[in-house]
Amino acid sequence: MFYYSIKRLLMLIPVLLGMTLIVFAIIHAIPGNPALTILGTKATPEAIHSLNRSLGLDNPWYVQYFSYLKDILSGNLGTSIQTNSPISSEIWPHLAATIELSFVAMIIAVFVGINAGIISAWKQNSFLDYTAMILALIGVSMPVFWLGLLEQWGFSIKLQWLPSIGRDDIRNSVDPITNLYLIDTLLRGRLDQFWMVIRHLILPAIALATIPTAIIARMTRSSMLEVLKSDYIRTAKAKGQRMIWIVYKYALKNAFIPILTVIGLQTGLLLGGAILTETIFGWPGVGLYIYNAIQYRDYPVIQSGILVIAFIFVMVNFIVDLLYGLFDPRIKYR
Amino acid sequence: MPQASQAQPEQSTVKDISPTIMAIGEFWKAFRKNKPAIAGTFIVVFFILLAIFARFIAPQGINDQNIGIRLQPPSAAHWFGTDDFGRDIFSRIVFGARLSLRVGFLSVVGSIIAGTLLGVIAGYFGRFLDVVISRIFDILLAFPSILLSIAIVAILGPSLNNALVAIAIVNIPVFGRLVRSRVLTVKEEEYVVAARSIGMGDMRIIFHHVLPNSFAPIIVQGTLNIATAILDAAGLGFLGMGAQAPLPEWGKMLSDSREYIQNAPWTVLFPGLAIVLVVVGFNLIGDGLRDALDPRMKN
């Protein structure tokens, strides 16, 4: 297991390097001179020249790439054109907001998706099964941003049950410690604020969770159907074990590997979907950070934002890979 | 002459029906039993007809503005109501079908062509090329697709066509990997080894044996990918990175009317419904094709 982890970790290196190369290439392929973007159209040629030199833009591309790589490894993600402050310090609160939102969405997706899938497989071809699978089909076909808008209209504007924008109320804002508000409010012992943060989380988290929920439900159903047909399940039934026990204890454990893979892959979708969800709900995460950067053509922010999200995605899949053995001891690591 | 034509059918039932036609017949038998897939086909055909005959179906042009009737609720005159410029939403959705279907089909065809080419090169010729191409696929797949599309659109500039290109590029590895794995399996089959031993060239083997055997999974994946391509294009349109005003692209229509949601929810409701419906259609067909073409599920 230990050697396998090391080996997998080493295998990540070329992927991570390739990612930096792609992000680097993208920014350099964007037409227009970055110095001109930073200084504005009224800049003198001398000013552009000197900025080019100080940014190292007059060097050949591979020299620029290696200095970019060196910057990233030392934790320097560049400077935002818009705010003129270092992105590495600016991005953390946004990242925390995205992580909190994605995490809650993933919990919803896993809980609802797995249970819906189990019930569908257990009661195959019943009314419940059909309903769950039709909902799952609509779920995978739903544009996240449309669902988000409908939620806002229904639950915020019409019913006025839940707030439609942001992470907290402006007049009762959370005093951040870790920037993960659920944790911060608890650390400060502010249960009223904790509840407020949850109320802000509900709508965006449900919107973001829709597609992963649907995909996990479909995967769980097909995976469970296969396992429920196996001999050991029949034996358990013959022994008179209760069905609910069989399904949740014995069957789910063996059906979990493909489900786990899907969960890992869905994290990417979740992080990607965050840009749409966050835009609608004014959720100040990396998605909104990138969206605003797009509007201002703040390329260093777009570059670093994309890189950070891709990095998290790769790491989550690495962790999922290691978790396989935990759920299925038959998998041997070599 | 009559004698000859009488003698003919006996032989033709065995010899003349090509394996392709037999395969299609068998596929159709399985596919038509799948009710959801047939429903999906109806939905997609409906939208294709809508797109083709948009000029005749839409009561108004996409840019016929009339400020006097802005933000009107659905009525007999305007089935889906009007938007903030007083444009007929139904007409815009009908014309929008052209844009969404075009992006869906063309981007997927583009990714299939490029992905197949790279997948065949990687799988068939192997070695160094395989390592390089497979690693590039791994890296591209490490990015959430919408983010990579955004980055590509940032290079090319925001427009519907550039969104199409971006979505096509992002999906290349999906087909590339699929074809590569099929090629690796087919390459070792006895009939391919036999073909090679009688001196068949690489190109002939690829076109006669390898590609026809990769056809079914590509079609299944392609259909499902049309659905996601339409969703991604709408997402890019919504973010302002895809279709630009005044094009009646459904995602763009949603983002343009979101500020009116409080008083005119229909401006948001119908474009979204159109997206859901067409995507459901392609997903149903894709699932049906998989069931009908995948021999594992057939058993």
TrEMBL record, chain A:
One of its GO terms (cellular component) is plasma membrane. The keyword Membrane applies. This is Peptide ABC transporter permease. Residues 95-324 form the ABC transmembrane type-1 domain. GO terms for biological process: transmembrane transport. It comes from the Bacteria. The keyword DNA damage does not apply. The chain crosses the membrane at residues 9-30, 95-118, 130-149, 194-217, 255-281, 301-327. It holds the Pfam family BPD_transp_1_N. PANTHER family: DIPEPTIDE TRANSPORT SYSTEM PERMEASE PROTEIN DPPB-RELATED.
UniProtKB/TrEMBL annotation, chain B:
GO terms for biological process: transmembrane transport. The chain crosses the membrane at residues 37-58, 103-125, 137-157, 223-243, 264-285. Residues 97-286 form the ABC transmembrane type-1 domain. One of its GO terms (cellular component) is plasma membrane. Keywords: Cell membrane, Membrane, Transmembrane, Transmembrane helix, Transport. PROSITE patterns: ABC_TM1. InterPro entries: BP-dependent_transpt_permease, MetI-like, MetI-like_sf, OppC_N. It is found in: Cell membrane. It comes from the Bacteria. It is a multi-pass membrane protein. Its main location: membrane. The keyword Transmembrane applies. PANTHER family: D,D-DIPEPTIDE TRANSPORT SYSTEM PERMEASE PROTEIN DDPC-RELATED, OLIGOPEPTIDE TRANSPORT SYSTEM PERMEASE PROTEIN APPC. Belongs to the binding-protein-dependent transport system permease family. This is Diguanylate cyclase.
